[in-house]
Design goal:
Elements: H1 2-15, H2 18-23, E1 30-35, E2 40-49, E3 52-57, E4 61-66, E5 70-77, E6 110-115, E7 119-125, E8 130-137, H3 139-143, E9 150-159, E10 165-175, E11 183-194, E12 199-209, E13 213-215, E14 218-228, E15 233-244, E16 249-261, E17 268-276, E18 286-294
Antiparallel strand pairs: 1-2, 1-5, 2-3, 3-4, 6-7, 6-18, 7-8, 8-9, 9-10, 10-11, 11-12, 12-13, 12-14, 14-15, 15-16, 16-17, 17-18
Length: 296
């Protein structure tokens, strides 16, 4: 009986050798496909159906290909997974809800992020060690007819060997348009221990403005972490503290929440609760929501 089954399988494979290649793929694999009519398609496998495979491409978007229309399928790179077989989230591992981690995007990767509907940003991986983000809020433009607050944030990162962590340093500069141009921001470094899916980060920085230059009257600290609970969900805690006037005064925010991962690599929805260390006696916590959409 086993010989008959093996013979049938070999006959089918010889009739359509792509079947064996499809069977060896997994979601998140980067593949190059040649169709029977001579088209070359490059993209990421995001799913499959009986007799077909679903590919996410840069130029064509999401397409579904019938296996019979595929002449050749070549796996360019295998999807990265952690020891628990959970996909590695390269896009969202670069930051928690707000604070950055030491990790960076890979070269060519990019994502769009929306926070609370009114804040939008885009981040590009210029190289494996350098990325840049820019964005701003639109509430001022929509409701107050004022020029919106904008920001730009470059980041340089050095990973440790075997995905044991990373060190990153970056700056975030905000514009606050008034009668006279005012700009302010922070330079911050973060060190991360652990993999992209499971890690903890500590950071510190110094504030600056276009009026006063660098000042030790505003010193931010952060302590954040994330752990992948399953293929779909990560638990994230993002916490930061700001010291004023030589540490004579300070306040902070503590948070806990979930990151919901979608099938498309890098796509996620974040939901969390934030509580300030002081000044919120009547409410338990403030809600925070954001979403990430990978562009590349």
């Amino acid at each position: 009986m086993y010989r008959i089954l093996i013979t049938i399988f070999l006959c089918i494979s010889s009739m359509h050798p792509v079947l064996g290649q499809i069977a060896n793929h997994s979601e998140g694999d980067l593949v190059e496909i040649t169709t029977t009519d001579g088209q070359n398609i490059r993209g990421t496998i995001i799913g499959s159906r009986p007799g077909s495979v679903i590919i996410e491409t840069v130029s064509l978007g999401q397409i579904t290909l019938d296996i019979k229309s595929i002449r050749q399928l070549t796996i360019i790179s295998q999807a990265n997974t952690d020891p628990d077989a959970n996909p590695t989230d390269f896009h969202n591992s670069t930051r928690y809800f707000v604070n950055p981690s030491g990790y960076n995007l890979n070269k060519g990767q990019a994502y769009y992020e929306n926070i609370g509907i009114f804040f939008n940003s885009v981040t590009f991986g210029v190289s494996d060690n350098f990325s840049i983000s820019f964005g701003g809020e639109i509430a001022s433009l929509l409701f107050a007819s004022r020029f919106p607050v904008l920001y730009i944030s470059p980041k340089f990162s050095v990973p440790f060997g075997n995905e044991q962590g990373a060190f990153g340093v970056g700056a975030t500069f905000f514009t606050a348009p008034e009668e006279e141009f005012i700009g302010f921001g922070v330079i911050q470094a973060a060190i991360t221990g652990g993999s992209r899916n499971n890690n903890i980060s500590a950071g510190a920085g110094i504030g600056f403005s276009t009026e006063d230059g660098f000042t030790d009257s505003v010193i931010p600290f952060s302590l954040s972490g994330m752990t992948r609970l399953s293929k779909k969900i990560s638990l994230v805690s993002d916490n930061f503290f700001v010291a004023y006037d030589d540490f004579s005064d300070s306040f902070g925010f503590l948070s806990i929440g979930l990151r919901i991962h979608f099938k498309r690599p890098g796509a996620a929805f974040n939901a969390s609760l934030w509580r300030p260390t002081e000044g919120l006696d009547e409410l338990i916590a403030l809600p925070f929501v954001s979403a990430t959409i990978p562009l590349r």
